[in-house]
Automatic annotation (TrEMBL):
Coiled coil: none annotated. Keywords: ATP-binding, Ligase, Nucleotide-binding, Protein biosynthesis, Transferase. The lineage of its organism: Bacteria, Bacillati, Actinomycetota, Actinomycetes, Kitasatosporales. This is Aspartyl/glutamyl-tRNA(Asn/Gln) amidotransferase subunit C. Gene3D superfamilies: Glu-tRNAGln amidotransferase C subunit, N-terminal domain. The keyword Transport does not apply. GO terms for biological process: glutaminyl-tRNAGln biosynthesis via transamidation; regulation of translational fidelity; translation. It catalyses: L-aspartyl-tRNA(Asn) + L-glutamine + ATP + H2O = L-asparaginyl-tRNA(Asn) + L-glutamate + ADP + phosphate + 2 H(+); L-glutamyl-tRNA(Gln) + L-glutamine + ATP + H2O = L-glutaminyl-tRNA(Gln) + L-glutamate + ADP + phosphate + H(+). Belongs to the GatC family. SUPFAM superfamilies: Glu-tRNAGln amidotransferase C subunit. Its EC number is 6.3.5.-. It comes from the Bacteria. One of its GO terms (molecular function) is asparaginyl-tRNA synthase (glutamine-hydrolyzing) activity.
Amino acid sequence: MPGITREEVAHLARLSRLELKAEELDHFAEQLDVIIGAVARVSDVADEDVPPTSHPLPLTNVMRADVVRPSLTPQEALSGAPAQEQQRFKVPQILGED
């Protein structure tokens, strides 16, 4: 596989609006070449008998089932509120909308 050239790195830098020095172009060309090589090795490992997955291990739902339990009444929940309206907390308007 041909390596990444400094011209390709300079082109990517221009597209990204990055200003790179000459020594940075060489440095990043080497690094990008290593990264692309690593990605290529991953695709070599993937085999046709291995189905694509989003996670290497099977996931199970770990949430508990909903259980109805006694809770505060609206009056109890609002008892400490500085302001309330129609069984809701009343807060100052912040968006300038009605």
